[in-house]
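Q: Focus on the shape:
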Amino acid sequence: MKKIEEFYSKSIKFNKPSGLLKGFYNNELDKKLPGKVAIDLGAGVGNDAAFLIKKGFKVTCVDKEKSSKEIITNRIVDKKNLSFIISDFENVKLHKADLIYSCFSLQFCNPEKIDNIMNEINTNIVKDGFFVR
């Protein structure tokens, strides 16, 4: 538990979206999306979710840590465009989304069950949507 608290503390201080997500926007790939619904897998402290909400997305944060929801709820003002799923990746049930985003989180999935999350992603990414990892 101490390691995740240290990671969260550093992430809050960083307070920026990941380079991966910024690269997605720098290439203007967001303009090719059919809609503005996103899922942030491994949401952590919500830096990427906050960025997406500011860009007009409705974001579902997925994280197995209950403290993630509390931290993100306290940090993001626009809660009407924010929802949560508290679950590990092996058992998560997603919804349809235009963008499913995962930065440095899928490697924590049990390798024997990675097919479960990949099937959820493939089932729920809309036609012409993006999976960014």
In short: The chain has one domain: 2-132.
